[in-house]
Task: inverse folding
């Protein structure tokens, strides 16, 4: 006896011919497999979301536990935690834009005469500066320390120049102080170049 055959299609392409008495069995099987697959996908997505949520909580908890840290390291840790959660710029260009934005807001706050607002904006500017350090893989505290030492050295040079020229810094006009400062920078740069000539980097051609 010849059985009538049916063409069964699933997912827009799968096809084969089956006797009519197998059609119901196949459809039940296919629906069961499909349901199991969808359930498995839902479980996987749910597990992934739960893992992300757990990771987020763990990340932020680790940051909260570091509240005894100094401000710069704490800011760096908070930013790294936020970056792991996806809150970050793709490159340093966005960070520079943020620094410019915060500087403009600080200027506006200072002009308004609202010192509390100005201090808050200064904090935002410093926080943005830490982002620059992070993208440059630099230690912001070390950068600030080195900048302070450079300023100290230049100030010492300005005092020596003024003493040599018999000039009282306290009585100098702003233009004269600027000129002395630039002179000090120039002399220090020349001294640095001489030192480099005397002690070139090892391995240089």
Result:
């Amino acid at each position: 006896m010849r059985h009538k055959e049916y063409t069964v299609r699933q997912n827009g392409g799968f096809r084969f011919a089956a006797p009519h008495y197998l059609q119901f069995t196949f459809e039940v099987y296919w629906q069961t497999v499909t349901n199991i697959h969808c359930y498995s996908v839902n479980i996987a997505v749910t597990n992934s979301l739960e893992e992300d949520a757990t990771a987020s909580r763990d990340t932020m908890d680790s940051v909260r536990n570091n509240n005894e840290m100094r401000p710069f390291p704490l800011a760096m840790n908070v930013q790294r935690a936020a970056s792991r959660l996806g809150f970050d710029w793709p490159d340093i260009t966005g960070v520079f834009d943020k620094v410019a934005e915060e500087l403009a807001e600080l200027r506006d706050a200072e002009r308004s005469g609202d010192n509390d607002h100005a201090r808050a904006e200064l904090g935002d500017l410093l926080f943005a500066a830490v982002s620059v350090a992070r993208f440059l893989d630099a230690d912001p505290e070390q950068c600030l320390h080195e900048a302070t030492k450079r300023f100290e050295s230049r100030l010492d040079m300005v005092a020596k120049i003024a003493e040599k020229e018999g000039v009282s810094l306290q009585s100098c006009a702003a233009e004269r102080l600027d000129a002395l400062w630039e002179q000090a920078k120039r002399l220090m740069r020349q001294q640095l170049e001489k030192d480099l000539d005397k002690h070139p980097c090892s391995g240089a051609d």
